[in-house]
Design a protein that fits this description.
alpha/beta, Serine Threonine Protein Phosphatase 5, Tetratricopeptide repeat, 12 helices, 43% helix
Amino acid sequence: MRKLKPTKKIKSKSQIKSQLKITACYITKNEENNLPRSINSLKSQVDEIVIVDTGSTDQTIEVAKTFGAKVLNCEWTNDFSKPRNMALDNATGDWILFLDADEFFSKETAKNIRPLIEKADKEHKEGILVNLINIDVDRQNKVLDTTYLLRAFRNFEGYKYVGRIHEELHRADNTTLTELSLVPTEILTLYHTGYSTAINADKARRNLKMLLAELELTDQPERIYGYIAQCYNGLKDYINAEKYAIKDINGGRRDTTFASSSYRILLNILAREPRRIVDRIKYSAKAVKDFPETPEFHAEHAECLIIERKFPEAIAEMETALKAYANYDGLEPMLFNNTMAKMAKERLEVWKADYARMKGNK
């Protein structure tokens, strides 16, 4: 997704409409508390709302109907793609805005939804990547991480979701969308509360069950290794988290959002065990190679090298980390921040001084 290279022309200029019809889509189950906030954040920007419910026992359907939504029912079969594709089949808009019920746009930026979609349409884009911010409402809306996700796309015949969980949107020829617009957070901010403390473990257990079932059936297991590692890590099963993170890493960098997740999981696990410094150096070096734009991987590799007293290499890596931080323009979530940059500069000065003394004593 970093390449964002055009593969084909979508429409001629004469085909572009002056007023696009936009459909908002959701799949739901017992979302009566989340759904109103989400719909309220976008309703002024869309022309149609399609909701596919998978068996709610609360007031979700009634709430949806108060917003004038078209509500459809889909039997739940442990397959997220099935209801998502039902929503696509019933959406009549030129573009689709597909959100989860626990996602919502900020009040300050929601007004930009339609202009952004119209701009993407004129530029012949297939979809729009939005920076989603995961927040923990149980800890005063603490920001957990951010990642770019496909949330708006053309309503083209043949587009469909694939995968029982962590599903991906594919074209009719089973390729992923590549001609995408990237929207900065300050232009459009999307929040997600689905990984808050109170529900994180339950979601991890649910997802893991579905992922392991898919693993038995899929002919593309490499697509879900990283997701399985995330689930085991969330459940604090670090042995299996490491196992599947390595499987994912060994396949090389994937063209998907948060592709670096398995590296982060594995390096955190290895950092808990000082005796495994050789493995930590090995995988931090691979992280740097596969994600050269990500500053924290350079900093992590530098910290590994300094343990081995490799001063020149460690100093060079930390300098690279600081440069990458100052000039970051990647899609991967960046966890490096101002505080970490300040600490890195302090560490760098200490290392340089120690190295100078070491050379002077020779």
